[in-house]
Amino acid sequence: MKPRDSTKEKSSLWIFGYGSLVWKPGFAYKRSTIGHIRGFKRRFWHGDDFYRGDKDKPARVVTLVEDEQACTWGVAYEVTDSQVEESLQYLNMREIVLGGYITQMVEFLPKEKGQGPLLAVVYIATSSNPIYLGPASDREIAAQIAACSGNTGHNIEYLVRLAEFMRLSCPEAEDEHLFSIEAAVLNIFSECGGIKPQKPILLGAS
């Protein structure tokens, strides 16, 4: 079954979120559905010097890296009518102007049975971005996350919320990179006297 190209219908658009958008889209939408895209893996390789970090200590946030064998789980939001323009204006500021992401169309596969594939727009940060940080060991990424905070909160909150989303909404899915970094952060706090970061209350990926 071919995915429906919702971009050809100006009154409807699907937006795929795989990072903070899974719990905080920040825009009005008609409906949402959990699912995944193929050919990409989620990695904490992008820098953030505004939301979860600053100029002196850029945070680590996720982006997508091409990998034919991988898939990434997240949430797709359908926006319609006036929501289309409003959501894109909001996301272009949040993800492109402040975050350094670009847009790409991807095939989204809903988890819900009976739903066919959809075309969705996704925001991806590439290595050409000046605040792109690239690969590092789990321990190095965890240490950076543990030390950073920005205008919308601590980098740890970002990590924990994303891990909680995967556990609650996609228990059958694997994300070794995400959970390995979460474990590395907990190890850092354990080594510092057993103090663990407080888990935030989920807002829910509605």
UniProtKB/TrEMBL annotation:
Keyword Lyase on entry: yes
One GO cellular component, as annotated: cytoplasm
InterPro entries reported for this sequence: ChaC, GGCT-like, GGCT-like_sf
EC number: 4.3.2.7
Key word Lyase present: yes
A molecular function (GO) term: glutathione specific gamma-glutamylcyclotransferase activity
GO BP term, pick one: glutathione catabolic process
Keywords, sorted A to Z: Lyase
Pfam families the record matches: ChaC
Broad class of enzyme this protein falls into: lyase
Catalytic activity reported: glutathione = L-cysteinylglycine + 5-oxo-L-proline
Family: Belongs to the gamma-glutamylcyclotransferase family. ChaC subfamily.
Cited PANTHER family: CATION TRANSPORT PROTEIN CHAC-RELATED, GLUTATHIONE-SPECIFIC GAMMA-GLUTAMYLCYCLOTRANSFERASE 1
Protein name: Gamma-glutamylcyclotransferase
Lineage of the species this protein comes from: Eukaryota, Metazoa, Chordata, Craniata, Vertebrata
